[in-house]
Amino acid sequence: MSALELWGGHECTVNRVGEAFYDQTLRSGHHDRIEDLDRFAELGLNRLRYPVLWERVAPESANQLDFSWSDARLARLGELGVKPIVGLVHHGGGPAYTHLLDDSFAPGLAAFARRVAERYPHVEDWTPVNEPLTTARFSCLYGHWYPHLAEEGAFWRALLNQVDAVRLAMHEIRRVNPAARLIQTEDIGRTYATAPLQYQADYDNARRWMTWDLLFGRVVDGHRLHARLCAYGLGPRLEAIANAPCAPDVLGLNHYLTSDRFLDHRLSEYPLVAQGGNLDRAYADVEAVRVMSPPPPGLEGVLREATDRYGRSLAITECHNGCTREEQMRWFAEAWDTAEKLRTEGLPIEAVTAWSLLGSYDWNSLLTVQQGSYEPGVFDLGGPAPRATGMAKLLANLVSGTERPPAAHGAGWWRRDVRLEHPPVGACEPFVSRAGSRGASHRARPILITGATGTLGRAVARACEARGLDYVLTSRAELDLGCEEMVEQALSRHRPWAVVNAAGWVRVDDAEQAAEACLAANAEGAGRLARASARYEASFVGFSSALVFDGVLGRPYSEADVPSPLSVYGASKARAEELVLSVDQTLMIRTSAFFSAHDPHNFAWAVREQLKSGRTVMAADDLVVTPTYVPDLVRATLDLLIDDASGLWHLANRGETSWADFARRLARAFDLPVDLIEGAPAAHFAWPAARPACSALVSERGLMMPTVDDAVKRMARSLA
After folding, report:
1. How many CA atoms lie within 13 A of 237 on its CB side?
2. CA 162, CA 243: separation in Å to the nearest integer?
3. What is the average pLDDT across 237-264?
4. How far apart are the first and last CA of the chain?
């Protein structure tokens, strides 16, 4: 058996909502970046799922085709030695002149497929329609996408139209290239249920196979759902499909942590957002992994089921997890390990596909609105150019068989108790995993965190705990940055893969009378720890402050702006930046005023407490800042650390504000009296240390942080 292949694909959906077409290739900017293909090839991909979509090539008329964009990109893939798997429709219903229920949809796609095959006769692998069943559900059963119906009969017609489109398209393609392969993708998630809803689960579990059952010609008299479709007058169409099937050459499984579902009749156990139902009764519909104990067999289970049912070659054609970086890595590594181990049992698994290479937009709303909600993939699009994340290094390690990044080790959240969000329910049938993840049992080197008594150090430790990252949190008694010997001993003892320096002097005004001590703690200690970390081949991240600037520019500061501090504290941080960044491959985070629900010693907490007691809050109205929500800062910092990012980064929540206006935003979020907020000039407070009039931060390297308003709302919810 040949080696397991690595495939890839960028999120390329073109779906229709009303009269609008939402194009992920445009949203990601890939439409204008042919150089992305070089980035993809450098990952070690054998094949790339790639769109030559009907909606993009012939949007106005079937007779007006523009292949110029596809020509350049397929040519470049050929030069790079990456074989394309060409997709023609991806969660869409074709251009505006057709739709999923149109009689012209299938013959129209077939005619388009013929034109594409004639233009690219070298292409061997094809997916004419991505996930026909899923697309039919979202469009004609749930009403999310055009034609926005919620009718079972319309759903079945949409599915049959897409299956016919696949059959007819492959017929036309094979007239050009007889060796063309059909790689048919589908999400085959399984449904579990409490006993009163087992009938619904049984139906869902029969329905999930329908794309492939139809293409194999199996939906005939005696099939579990044959009579149901015949009741909608679809018997003749089923017969026609069964008489001229188009069995896939490769079954492509698109499997997500949300794919497997659990239905529960006990509505009181679940929030309203999880409640729905069928025509007979209401029930909760949640991710099975969030409620079942033990968890469902997931990807391994569906791979085994598909093999038993069809005996055809398999590929995992979408593997992606919208989560923190290490969880993305663990999910893909587990899929890879599962595929490798099942191959040793004889399962014919060809590949695992790194999906959403450029991330995706608005899948949290099922692509029903364009609100700009972005989740990174193998590359992060937050900056001026796509930036490789820790996923890129993992893929290279998997292909080469070399040691994986430390963060990829450990159990994913779906393997830990944190996965359970509802009262656990026993599995419907026993399942013994025979293909676990290699990473799950590997004890990784820890992250060493300094500053055990500080807001930031404790927050980093909390985040590591939540994310399943091994860590060691040290206090000054254990690791005094002023002592070279203690630094050396700590690194030698713990052998961390990364060091997070969250220790240091934080009292801005007191520093004016203790310049030497402040400089020693913030600058010299940070430099000492950074140099020692380099000797032990540990990544290093430290923190600086917006107070390195004097504010005279009168606008938010970026990483390119030159520091000019007004205070001793600001000078100590500017010096820390110099010392830390003089060490190769170190990361320095410049951030702004903290606020957090976990620490009573911050401005936001003080505002809340004073307003709750009916006291007036005085705040500066002539100092502009970018308040920074500590959980957001820590999340972004750990992601950058895992990504092997280096250099100087600005991380602050987006949106500058005066302290007084920030207090008003907090009051509104906490539903407390805004009229108790009084603005005053900074001079009123007579602070010993001078503050810049504007110390707001922006980043030219990447948009890693949410807005201030979004962070304030989340803090308020956490304290409600």
Report:
1. 22
2. 17
3. 98
4. 57
Q: Is the pLDDT of residue 254 over 50?
A: yes
Which segments of 91-197 does DSSP mark as H helices, in order?
Answer: 105-119, 132-136, 152-176
Beta-carbon contacts of 89 under 8 Å, excluding residues fewer than 6 positions away, are 53, 54, 55, 109, 128, 129, 130, 162, 165
Name the amino acid, one letter, at 312.
R
Asked whether 340 and 305 are in contact (CB, 8 A), the reply is no
Is the previous residue joined to 51 through a cis bond, with omega within 30 degrees of 0? no
Decide if 440 contacts 411 (C-beta within 8 A): yes
Given a contact cutoff of 8 angstroms between Cβ atoms, the answer to whether 124 and 83 are in contact is yes
Distance CA 15, CA 516 (A): 61
Q: What residues are paired with 380 via a beta bridge? A: 387
Phi, psi of 510 (to 5 degrees): -60, -30
Label residues 442-460 b or e (16+ Cβ within 10 Å = b). eebebbbbbbbebbbbbbb
Q: Which residue has the tokens 């996408």?
A: 145
Tokens 């409490």 belong to which residue? 194
Cα 597–Cα 692–Cα 647 angle in degrees, nearest 5: 70
Amino acid at 526: A
Task: Show the CA angle centred on residue 451, arms to residues 450 and 457, nearest 5°.
Answer: 95
Query: How many beta carbons lie within 10 A of that of residue 520, not counting itself?
Result: 17
Structure tokens, 198? 């087992």
Q: How far is CA 313 from CA 47, 112, 259, 399, in A?
A: 16, 27, 21, 20
Res 442: pLDDT: 52
Looking at CATH, the fold of the domain delimited by 445-599+626-655+695-706 is given as Rossmann fold (3.40.50)
Q: Which residues of 255-281 are buried (b: 16+ CB within 10 A; e: fewer)?
A: bbbebbbbbbbebeebeeebeeeeeee
Stretch among 423-427, 452-456, 654-658, 693-697 having the lowest mean pLDDT: 423-427
Q: What is the pTM of this model?
A: 0.95
Residue spans per domain, the chain: 5-440, 445-599+626-655+695-706
Q: Determine if the peptide bond prior to 673 is cis (ω within 30°).
A: no
Amino acid (one-letter) located at 213: D
Give the distance, in angstroms, between the CA of residue 502 and the centroid of all CA atoms in the same chain: 27
The rounded mean pLDDT for the chain is 96
Picking from 155-164, 244-253, 426-435, 653-662, which range would have the lowest pLDDT averaged per residue? Answer: 426-435
Fold of the CATH domain 5-440: TIM Barrel (3.20.20)
3-state helix, strand, coil in the chain (%, to 5): 40, 20, 40
d(CA 590, CA 561): 12
Residue 250 in tokens? 């490769």
State yes or no: pLDDT of 74 exceeds 70. yes
Query: Which residue bears the tokens 């929030």?
Result: 271
**Smallest Cα–Cα separation from 380: which of 341, 435, 325, 310?**
325
Residue 648's SS3 state is strand
Burial of 536: CB neighbours in 10 Å, binned 0-12, 13-18, 19+: middle
The rounded distance, in Å, linking the Cα atoms of 148 and 367 is 13
Does 436 have pLDDT greater than 70?
Answer: no
Cβ proximity of 612 and 719 under 8 Å: no
Helix (H) or strand (E) holding 426: strand 425-426
Q: What is the pLDDT of residues 533-545, one digit of tens each?
A: 999 999 999 999 9
Backbone Cα Rg of the chain: 28
Q: What is the pLDDT of residues 477-501, one digit of tens each?
A: 999 999 999 999 999 999 999 999 9
Phi, psi angle pair for 660, to nearest 5°:
-65, -45
* Overall average pLDDT of the 285-295 stretch: 97
Q: Can you say whether the dihedral through the CA atoms of 123, 187, 216, 353 is positive or negative?
A: positive
